[in-house]
Amino acid sequence: MSKLIKRTVLLGAVAASGAAAFYLTADTDTQMEIASSTGPLLRMLDPELSHIIGIQAAARGLLPRDTRPDPPSLHTKVFGLEFSNPLGLAAGFDKNAEAVAGLMGLGFGFVEVGSITPRPQPGNPPPRVFRIPELKATINRYGFNNLGADAVQDHLAEFEKKVLQDPSIKRGPLGVNLGKNKSSKDASQDYCIGLTRLAQHADYLVVNVSSPNTPGLRALQGRKELEALVKQVKGTRDRMLWGPGGPPPLLIKVAPDLSEPDKRDIAAVALNCGVDGLIVSNTTIQRPGRVAEFPAAQEAGGLSGPPLLELSTSVLSDMYRLTGGRLPLVGCGGVSSGEDAYRKIRAGASLVQLYTAFAYEGPTLIPRVKRELAECLDRDGFRSVAEAVGADHPDIRGGSGPGTRKTSPSWFRWW
């Protein structure tokens, strides 16, 4: 290597270390701006590669840490768990629980990892992720690629150790999303294995029967199949030894591509079998609206992003109605603004998740969505998220209004 090249590399390293030092000591707003400025560069890369880079950045503490308090109106309690805000990161981003601390620090109210299968599996062959940037949408067919339950168990134990050692690390509720291996013949056994390995690290558990990228998985949403699965998994959970707080809540994640009988069956199973909640919904195999105009629409896989919002919110509303508002619902699919999150909440969601919008917009999305959601609640006179849940179903809620409208509180100045 010539002296000139060596000198150039050295100067570059010094500049990079200086930039990193500046970034890590900057205030939250500056960190957010710097992190978001890398977004256009990442979107020039292959989508799966940019995803990997994002995970590694979060795992190494290179994402912003938002220490600002959430607006009081966003605080909520669901499944007996306290949430500083109802906005969560959906499963699929941190598949192996490698970056939980960094992702929590961005300001999410909760983070869900997975989906995790008992044995490691590579997933489907690449390319398997396709952007539709004009619509801020994505189609993926990852196929539950993950390191397996043993590796994830180690990562979650490391996260818990890190939290104990560093009290500054934000620790919101953590969800663990379970899947089945592609080659497994007994789906129930796979979910039970995942549960026994990982439940001790979870604030809530999710049985994912809704990914379109594992053959036969969505067939588990049928009434007979789902009832048998839930009874076996719930029985396994309930036979384990738990402390005074009892076992973690068990949720089912369902698809948006459901017929009316499917919805009725899922609601009946959830209520009759004592499921603690539903996540509505996963990605769709449909190609609604303008999606069909783009070449990526021809790719197999699940569609996510804004084109999914209408469908997923409609299914969410149906599930709230079919369960009579007796079951906490998590609204997922197409959320990219506070208004979107608010629509989910009014339709029946107690909590809301996003993923694709975060991949497109980066860390600044989270405080923006929370600020907008707080403004929506205040605009319509709701003092809390809980007051607004199911507001579009006054016949189920037993009333139509939250009370008098209030003026904007002083904590808006924080945003």
TrEMBL record:
UniProt remark on cofactor binding: Binds 1 FMN per subunit.
SUPFAM superfamilies xref list: FMN-linked oxidoreductases
UniProt name for this protein: Dihydroorotate dehydrogenase (quinone), mitochondrial
Alphabetized UniProt keyword annotations: Flavoprotein, FMN, Membrane, Mitochondrion, Mitochondrion inner membrane, Oxidoreductase
Domain Dihydroorotate dehydrogenase catalytic: 74-377
Organism (species): Volvox africanus
Region of interest (Disordered), ranges: 393-415
Keyword Mitochondrion: yes
Family: Belongs to the dihydroorotate dehydrogenase family. Type 2 subfamily.
Entry EC number(s): 1.3.5.2
First-level EC class: oxidoreductase
